[in-house]
Amino acid sequence: MTTHALPHPAALAQSRHTGGALFHFTIEHFLLLPIGGLIALVWANLRPESYFTLSHNLSFVVNEIGMALFFALITQEIVEELMPGGALHTWKRWTLPAVAAVGGLAGSTLVYLAYVAWRYEAVLLPGWPVAGAIDIAFAYFIVKAIFRRHAAVPFVLLLAITADALGMFAIAARQAFVNVGSGGSALMAAAVACAFIFRQMKVRTFWPYLVICGPMSWWALYLDGFHPAFALVPIVPFLPHVPRSLDAFTDTPDRRHDSVRHFERLSRYPVQAVLCLFGLVNAGVLLSGYGTGTWALLSAAVIGKPIGILAATGLAVALGLRLPIRLHWRDLVVVALATSGGFGFGLFFATAVFPVGPILAELKIGVIATGVGVPLAFAAARAVHAGRFGRHAHHA
Amino acid sequence: MNRSAALVASAVLLAGVGAWNAAAQPGLPQQAGAAITSIARPESLRFAVVGDAGSGEAAQYDVGRQMSAARETFPFEFVIALGDNMYGRQEPQDFVTKFEKPYEPLLAAGVRFFGALGNHDRQENRFYPGFNMAGERFYTFVRQDVRFVVLDTNLLDPKQLAWAEDTLNAAPEAWKIVYFHHPLYSDGGRHGSNVELRVRLEPLLVRYGVSVVFAGHEHIYERTVPQKGITYFVEGASGQLRKGDLQRSPLTAAGFDQDRTFMLVELTGDRMLFRTISRTGVTVDSGVIVRRSTT
User: Fold this and answer.
1) CB of A48 less than 8 A from some CB of B
2) pTM of this prediction?
3) Nearest Cβ partner for A120 among B89, B191, B198
4) Which domains, and CATH codes, for chain A?
5) Rounded to 5°, angle at Cα A93 from A146 and A392
6) How do residues A262-288 score in pLDDT, each as one tens digit?
7) Which of A332, A393, A307 is nearest to A96 (CA)?
8) Does A253 touch chain B (CB under 8 A)?
9) Domains of chain B (ranges plus CATH)?
10) Which one, out of A2, A48, B16, B201, has a CA that is 20 to 30 A from the CA of A181?
11) Is A75 helix (H, G, I), strand (E, B) or coil?
């Protein structure tokens, strides 16, 4: 080998730069989850025995513990947007997206339940929250790609956050109804009281909240039969917060001494790693495992949810609410279709509702299949000349 | 049941055993009555197996008649139902047309059915007295020296897995037979083996000395080559049928996908004799399985 065969230092630097940019792009666009999911899907269908052994061994750590970090971040987003200056603070700003979210959930639920009832597979009935799940990052990036800076972006974010919050509430309420408490309530009260005391003591670092209150809350939920991944949900509201702009995926100013910002910054990469593992552990399904649950979920997400969103928004507008400035009905059609994809949230909801088995596998395939919403959203945008496909693109 | 009837029954059950290898070949079904060899004892345990049966269609009634006819010479005590015991609407009148009528002579004779839940069964069906599930999704029962463990593979939650492990571990019986709806091994073209369930269940089955597993779901009949010492049966064609769906592989010991079927099983000592019969009364598979050692 001659030295000519070695890469030039400049080429190496360029390569490192390209690699770094690719990594940054992957992180910024929350692509580790779909990458993990894709690997899982291929692996499960090529070497199912080894895949399901790994999935079985990792599922508890990833789904029940690791995902608590992810839901902590989601809770933080919601809490901050409810604060003064936040997007959810005034009812005028969030009412219409919230109504649209309720409509989407109602539409997807109706279609899902109707399909399952038509096929007489009652065992699938509890899966309706899965059909209403919206992958927030996924919907955001589709709408962003189509509309760039536009009122559709905060609208879809609010819609997705509200829909998933409703789904989480529905699942937690069902678990509360189904499971009999085993002494977790007192422990949860202690965890919340502890977080309250930290707050009163003006503890600004998040570590005590995470290390002391978090495990108490996790164990309390576990004892009572709730999904312990929600462990930090009742704790996060006690962290000192500041309002934030709605565009959740843009960089925020560095506030080094702000506990929430500190938490957000430190947990950024671990959460992405958890999401990658979540995709790896949960998205692997044998494609031969499709069934009624698959079709019920797909039709609910791609047909029921968009129709529900449009119908509820239409009703709200008829009753006096106004669409955001520059958000037209044709844009709303695209936004509604962009919410079809359940992915991360859909997979999580599915695993929270159903234990391992063919029923869960059917729903997982349905969740993955909701990816069909991507080309549908782009096709709709092209057909109605919305966003970048518009004759006069209406950028902000 | 008297001793002579039991001997006759055992002899008829074994009709196909002598032709075991031939029956395992596709397209070579055995006519009932051929090559009688009796080794069974009167105290043996006899039962029948149906799966994916509850269609309420004529074929299910035909199978029911064949079962009644078979019981005249092979007086089985009970039937295990491998799930999808009811398809479609499941109102009270459907339990009559899809279960009580097709098996009316058997039920009238006091034959009890022990059901497992399939994906088409309503979970509430576990409360239906005819399925003898005592309101449980997963349960166990003992007959003679045989422990039956019935699982709900629709929803294989940790609680059920822990229960299955405890039950199998504590069972003192010589024979341990497990049945549920979704097959861990199958060459059925529609679904195939459920590897995800297998990863969780197979270690328990192997560890605790299970010899035979019955499942349905695939609308065919199939018997596998023993896997880690366990023979897996798929009997999912007692009402439904997916004709021509068996994709034979080295896993397949025998199979039949041309008509509806049910199974007759006899356990005597450390041997399990089985015979699979089609809707028209043709023996499509038969053989003997030797119990695995539990040590």
Assistant:
1) yes
2) 0.83
3) B89
4) 32-386 (1.20.1530.10)
5) 30
6) 566 666 788 889 999 999 999 999 999
7) A332
8) no
9) 3-290 (3.60.21.10)
10) B201
11) helix
